[in-house]
Amino acid sequence: MEKKSEKKSFFEKLATLIVDKRNLIFFIYIAALIFSVFSRNWVSVCNELTDYLPEDTETRRGLTAMEEELVTYGTARIMVSNVTWEAADYLAGEIEEVDGVSSVEFDRTEEHFKQTDALFDVSFSGEADEEISLEAMSEIKAIMEPFDTYIDSEVGESLASTLDSEMGMIMVIAVVIIVLVLLLTSGSYAEVPVLLLTFGAAALLNMGTNFLFGEISFVSNSVSVILQLALAIDYAIILLHRFIEEKEEHDTREACIIALSSAIPAISASSLTTISGLAAMMFMQFRIGYDLGIVLIKAILLSMLSVFTLMPGLLMLFAKPIEKTAHKKFLPEINLWGKFVVKTRYIGVPAFLAVMVAGFFISQDCPYAYSQTSITTSRQNESQIAKAKINDTFGEQNVMALLVPKGDYEKEQALLKRLENYDEVNYAMGLANVEAIDGYMLTDGLTPRQFSEMADVDYELAELLYAAYAAHNDEYGKIVGGLDSYSIPLMDIFFFLYDQKEEGYVTLDDDLNEDLNDMYWQLSDAKAQMMGENYSRMVIDLNLAEEGEETFAFLNTIHREAEQYYDADEILLVGNSTSAYDLSTSFARDNIIISVVSVVLVVAVLLITFQSVGLPILLILVIEGSIWINFSFPALQDKPVFFMSYLIVSSIQMGANIDYAIVISNWYSTFKKTMSRKDAVIKTLNMSFPTIVTSGTILVSAAFLIGKLSTEPSIVGIGECLCRGTAISMVLVMLILPQILMLGDWLVEKTSFSLKKPDISIHHEIRTLYVDGRVRGRLSGVVDADIHGYISGDVSGVAINGSNFLQKGDNNYEDQEEE
Hints:
This protein is of the alpha+beta class.
């Protein structure tokens, strides 16, 4: 029997190796962290949510087609206030002279001038991220600096740098709050640096390994570090508490080994619910869920790795300072709260069930937003302030791009005319209705006579040009049948004339040559923006909001009009409104998937953990109830929630907040075996309070900061909803869950089952041991009897059957197994 008790388990061997090789591990971590400082800049960050739409959505297909075939030049809406029309007209001229600016639209109409406010619609000569556009924007800002100016443009705006700045500020404040929380809940001041060093290393390693994914979203890049810290702080606290407990009976090395060997399986099991909730996001059709899910799962795994490998060495290093800086507990006993919970159980549970049912129905009416412009954030950056000011003064812009098969200018012209007849359309523009010269549109067909009159060239020269064009395009029948009625689109004949001139076949006088060159560059710009290899692009400006039933209905109207001229599968409508429509469509599916998958995965973990069917149902009931109550608030306030925030937060609540419920359930299941259910609830709340307050407060604080200090609507929504949801979960598990466990005990007992386990070895340790079953071993002699009660002393034995619970005082130490 003694040989058996001396035999070390796998986790003990692993813990011994980690503790004894701590200096080597320190070296490896230092090298890895230095590497991560540089590698964290290698990851590519995607700033567009539309890039994560499913490939078969209309928006994604349309954006891909435009990226491959068309050029989209940068634009800007620039408003200047408190100016006269003359001063504004002068400024428009100044802006138009800037190198890199292709055009400035400004006139006396209310679209561009109202009272003392002027609006310039600026187009650049390059795309939004090209150097020519960036330099032009810098020069424009210098010109407008003396004036009260507001600029709404994607040119020169970096979402990544804005978020980096915001998250840096949030991280600093979060760390201060976390330090204060840890000081309040810790038993020694020196515990805090151990926890911070452990998670600082985990956070840096996570950032430094993101490059392995190639590209991550701006959402993952921004919030993953803060959420990692908030979600995984429990792991370090578990190991720390176990080390402090073992230190009372063993030397530092032995205490660290024992604590680590028991913490590895416990922490690994605890992480499964969190990972399950995050994994549910990876099933989303909207692939940003996969992106955030995999980044956060990696963060959780690296946090556990740091706790298992780095933290033991830090505990060895800080062991003496931890002893010297020990202080009294700041958190009070909450016996009165426990008694209140017990006495109100017949009121609390029915009230919760009523609120939960109401929350379910109210949350179904939660107003979801699919466009970020529909969300108002607590704090706004300079660009958001400018956009809001311009929209309030001159109205919002909702510009759509309609892609149709290229080549048939008559169909395009007819479609544009029909679209312009709708009241919902401010204008519809394409190559077929853009005027070129003397009332002719770019795609109007011209005969040789019309071309000679328009271009002011000899008719004979025009005929020669048309004959050359026909021969070039193998249309010899036109030459034989006569060229008088031969019609060629204006744009095409000008391009052909320019090519012939460049090749030396045509010689023009200086004035005509200059006019042709100017016309060529204008036509080239127009063609690059409006016509690709397979598609022609039309631009439609709507006077509708970016999202809403009316807007979505009109998108179908545009499709119906286009389908009169083209096949339905050849038409692509792209813009913020179609993006919102596609996101709303994918949300319906993703909502069901996340709800089902997260519950199934978490229930599976709970079934194995508690070996009861009833207990997981009770725990899920509380957490699911907290989710419904959480998203009832936006419905009652009529405040839109960005759809992505709901999907992500509901997953995190189910996966992470369930840990609070598990803590309560574990303690209650243990204490009810040795005391009355009422006393078990009171004792459970006392034991759980520090853990739930520490973890919950940190997560609530981090989420609150994200919600209040970030300006990115999609990220703000995650912060606001997670803050509120976690706070609700904390209240429910500290108030309603114990009451449900008391009243639902019969269900838990009737649905319990057992899994066969091997004999349990009890190692030679001095502790308090509760036994319920048959024990054979030595206690200052030999015992072989059925024992029901506590044994205090030096115990060495084997539990033949029954269960055992090892505990020392009120420390958070638990080891319960059954055969």
